């Protein structure tokens, strides 16, 4: 899966159109087996689990059913095999024929499917379009989608926000962000977003000087792949017998975090959760730094990307936020575990 995500991330073999088409069709195909139902009814059943207006556009994501999802999406030309690239198959088949050949055979058996080939791409369908745009922006930029002061820290939780980096406490000033040096001991404004600022009226000293001045403040960041991002597909999504409204309750949150759970990762984990989709707690390196010194509050950055490898890390690492003069030191972990191998 990680290799496929890396290909889709780079726009290879059909990119996001291919991923969206194949995954949606695969879920429908699985439902037909579990419920011994027709594909149309299975799609309708799947749509009932989706939140809000996504129900309205769910059926538009699938134009033709009845074969292997990879084959159908190749026939619809959402997927293709680029020369020199690995062939990504989300739903492998034991057939001796190649997927492109089976797709051609499918078109010959069902000539009406050609009507769909003149339609817009799957990511141009209303409803699906919004999902694809979010995925594309986050995959390409690896930066908070909402970052008004462009300091690489945001105020939202998902979309590369505080799940990935410490939450900004003032998104209108680039001088104010997690990990920043204090200004005038933060006697008035919390410049480093650790929640410690103001004056102690009893001593006449800034709280930052009393609590943090003698400590060695240090943030933590990780540059890595899906392991560092804590990639996890909820098991309820892979077993149609477990499908329920509760299983898809946090669908938007999970997709906006790229199927990753950096808030539970070994390096930057900072919350304990017990959602239906995944269970905490976490004891991360960041959590241990925070326990040693609460002045390190919010000073974490998870710059991990699914499918990342050393050749792509040059661009990914540019999204790291640190200034040698204006920020405190940063412990950086470079962790590429699987994709180069």
From TrEMBL:
PANTHER family: ACYLOXYACYL HYDROLASE. InterPro entries: AOAH, AOAH_Saposin_N, GDSL, Put_metal-bd, Saposin-like, SaposinB_dom. Residues 16-79 form the Saposin B-type domain. GO terms for biological process: lipopolysaccharide catabolic process. It comes from the Eukaryota. Keywords: Disulfide bond. Signal peptide: none annotated. GO terms for molecular function: acyloxyacyl hydrolase activity; calcium ion binding. It holds the Pfam family Lipase_GDSL. The keyword Thylakoid does not apply. This is Saposin B-type domain-containing protein.
């Amino acid at each position: 899966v990680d290799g496929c995500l890396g290909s889709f991330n780079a726009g290879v073999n059909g990119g996001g159109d291919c991923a969206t088409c194949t995954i949606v069709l695969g879920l429908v195909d699985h439902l037909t087996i579990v419920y011994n139902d027709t594909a149309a009814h299975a799609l309708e059943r799947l749509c009932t689990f989706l939140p809000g207006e996504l129900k309205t556009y769910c059926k538009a994501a699938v134009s033709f059913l009845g074969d292997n999802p990879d084959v159908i999406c190749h026939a619809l030309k959402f997927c293709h095999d680029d020369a020199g690239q690995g062939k990504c198959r989300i739903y492998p088949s034991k057939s001796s024929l190649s997927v492109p050949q089976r797709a051609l055979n499918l078109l010959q058996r069902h000539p009406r499917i050609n009507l769909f080939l003149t339609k817009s791409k799957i990511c141009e369908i209303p409803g699906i379009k919004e999902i694809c745009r979010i995925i594309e922006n986050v995959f390409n930029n690896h930066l908070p989608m909402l970052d008004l002061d462009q300091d690489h820290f945001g105020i939202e939780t998902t979309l590369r926000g505080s799940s990935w980096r410490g939450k900004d406490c003032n998104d209108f000033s680039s001088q104010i962000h997690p990990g920043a040096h204090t200004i005038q001991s933060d006697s008035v404004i919390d410049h480093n977003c650790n929640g410690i600022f103001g004056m102690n009226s009893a001593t006449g000293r800034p709280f930052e000087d009393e609590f943090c001045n003698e400590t060695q403040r240090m943030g933590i960041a990780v540059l890595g792949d899906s392991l560092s991002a804590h990639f996890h597909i909820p098991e309820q999504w892979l077993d149609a017998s477990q499908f329920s409204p509760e299983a898809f309750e946090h669908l938007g949150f999970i997709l906006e975090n790229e199927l990753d759970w950096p808030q539970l990762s070994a390096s930057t984990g900072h919350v304990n959760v017990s959602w239906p989709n995944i269970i905490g707690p976490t004891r991360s390196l960041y959590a241990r730094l925070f326990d040693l010194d609460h002045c390190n509050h919010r000073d974490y950055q998870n710059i991990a990307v699914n499918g990342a490898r050393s050749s792509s890390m040059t661009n990914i690492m540019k999204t790291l936020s640190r200034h040698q003069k204006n920020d405190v030191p940063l412990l950086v972990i470079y962790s590429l575990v699987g994709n180069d191998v």
